[in-house]
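Every protein is a chain of amino acids, and every chain bends into a shape of its own. Below is the pair of lines this work produces for a single protein:
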Amino acid sequence: MVTMPLDPDLTPGTVVIGKWKNNKYIIQRVLGKGANGIVYLVQREPGGGRYALKMGFNPLDLQSEINVLTSLAKKDHLADGNGLSSYLKEVDNYQAGGSEISFYVMTYVRGEPLHLFIRRNGPDWTMLVGLRLLKKLAELHRLGYIFCDLKPQNVLVSSYGEVELIDYGGASPVGRSVKQFTEWYDRGYWNAGSRVADQKYDVFSFALLLIHLLEGEELRRITGNSLPQLRGRPALLTIIQKSERLAPYRSWLQKAIQGDYDDAEDAFFSWKKHVYRVRSGSKNASSEPTPGWLIPSFALSALIMAGAVILMLR
């Protein structure tokens, strides 16, 4: 039986050597620590690249997560995908102090948690990041899994707004019971449906994620001052209706909260069509919008080019 310490807290410079494959990874720093494990940034030796290595607090929980990732990688590969099939790199055990610690190695995703990205770059990015996150969820659903534990800490965003889901410990096959969730984003917590893994569960969680990002104070007020039996769709719809920040997303959010989208793909195309049209003022929503920070840069480039042309014509 594999045993492990309660907290596999390894210091930078520690060399993790796989028991079975004998590959070496040097711990550089902690990337994140959650309820079910620690993720380290590691350097593979000799001459390898940088990866993320996860060690779990509970061997059974970690093995369950590994099983999910392995299944997803196989399905993604068969579907000619290039996402999850290249996400999981290696699974092995690490012997330390008479114990064996299970771990797995995955692609290192550069970025920051969703809420920190929006806080630093501004709410205008919500439109683009939201679209890409819905697309990720739809891709996962096509492989037969629901993410379930959708929260800001489990969504990494790059400096260009690319999105990656991390921590698949809560991912469940379609139709199974939700095994891991965070209350605020859980459909059952809001008395808005069951805790059965289906596509509408993730769409509902996405809607709560958006409300939290833009109207967090109002959401906290409701959850802090109301009885559990008073939590429900009406309270959420009231926030959506009254909020100016949520106004561009109002019709989309109302449908998501009420479970009116057939699936994540339906929600994705609706976001692309209606939210883009409202936010960008464009009648053609077939292409992704330009983030606000690019517009001044483009205008400056145009002025410089115009000046250059004038000088050439003199």
Q: What stands out?
A: The chain is about 40% helix and 20% strand. Confidence is low (pLDDT under 50) at residues 1-6, 282-287, 293-314. The longest helix spans residues 199-225.
